[in-house]
Design a protein that fits this description.
It is built from two helices and no strands. By secondary structure, the chain is mainly α. Helix 1 (2-23) runs antiparallel to helix 2 (26-62).
Length: 97
């Protein structure tokens, strides 16, 4: 990531230099703050990578990925629930009319 960030900054510096040669000093009013902003963003991302990596390692160590889960995702899905049985004293679903 450091190499990629260095390449981006180098390309940005080259673009500012070419624009300076073509258009003069007003280019520096826009190009210099953009260059500083790019460097700051890369510095912040680089600084946040260490804590993020440690947090990811802690989360990965918390769970044992090789342990089998009991039943799995669809456990119990295809099991039929007990159906209520008909009582002998009630009619079997016919309508009296």
């Amino acid at each position: 990531m450091v190499r990629l960030g260095g390449a981006v900054v180098a390309l940005e510096v080259a673009a500012v230099v070419v624009a300076y040669l073509a258009f003069g000093w007003p280019v520096l009013l826009v190009g210099a703050p953009l260059l500083v902003g790019t460097v700051l963003v890369f510095a912040l991302v680089r600084a946040s990578e260490g804590p993020r990596r440690k947090l990811q390692e802690q989360r990965a160590a918390r769970w044992d990925t090789t342990a089998a889960t009991p039943g799995g995702l669809m456990s119990g899905f295809f099991e039929l629930s007990p159906q209520p049985t008909e009582r002998p004293d009630e009619p079997s679903g016919t309508l009296a009319g």
